[in-house]
């Protein structure tokens, strides 16, 4: 019996943006019709990559080279790696689409990380986050998480990212100019992070909060599958693509950004 596969239609969209006081133009593929929040991620990632290239170029021209390189995986081995709910859903869908036995292997790693966080009494702090959580308390929780040394489920044996093209915003943007060995413990060592001109994750959280009617927070990547199991129906909500993309762009750049189809 044949199965019909729905292919998401895309429309070329040319954006005129201002990044680091520089006017840039970029053409992206915008999804059309009714879409989920995670379906605008490819468009936002392309903008993110453009901004990262500009920020890296400016940093290197000022004499501050980026220390990060393939195999430099300290941040992947212990840090919470905060992802937006839309990114969590994209990760869940990515895992569901893996062939066996890889799918089961990755699921088991996620389950191990979640079990250890529940055992440490930290999982609920992230899954049922208190909106009034102070920065000091958040730092204490992050430090406790860090001490568990929970490696990213997608980290390969050679220290590379197993989902590089689909990696979250924070992984794309977390670039340091300080010595790489300082990242082994960023709570004790001075780590100089590259200033980034766009807050894509924050913008997506703001848009998600308005559109879904419930305050949205980031969660550690290791809890992505747990979060989706709890909020899957909400994450399946579809919205008009043009309005959603416009909301995201205005949240990032303000109403001065221009676009044409």
Q: Can you describe this structure in just a few lines?
A:
The chain has helices spanning 41-61, 74-78, 85-96, 102-119, 123-127, 135-148, 169-173, 200-212, 224-235, 241-253; strands at residues 10-19, 22-31, 34-35, 82-83, 219-220, 239-240, 258-260. By secondary structure, it is an alpha+beta fold.
What features would you describe in this structure?
The protein is an alpha+beta fold and 261 residues long. Helices cover 45% and strands 12% of the residues. It has ten helices and seven strands. The longest helix has 21 residues. It is globular, with a radius of gyration of 19 Å. The N terminus and C terminus are likely disordered.
Rg for CA atoms: 19 Å
Percent in helix: 40-55%
Please tally the β strands and state the result: 7
Number of domains: 1
State the oligomer: single chain
Question: Helical region count?
Answer: 10
Please list the strands of the largest sheet in the order they lie side by side.
Answer: 2-1-7
H/E series, N to C?
EEEHHEHHHHHHEHEHE
Cα shape: globular
**Proportion of residues in extended strands:** 5-15%
Secondary structure layout plus pairing:
Blueprint: E1 10-19, E2 22-31, E3 34-35, H1 41-61, H2 74-78, E4 82-83, H3 85-96, H4 102-119, H5 123-127, H6 135-148, H7 169-173, H8 200-212, E5 219-220, H9 224-235, E6 239-240, H10 241-253, E7 258-260
Antiparallel strand pairs: 1-2, 1-7, 3-6, 4-5
Helix pairs in contact: 3-9, 8-10
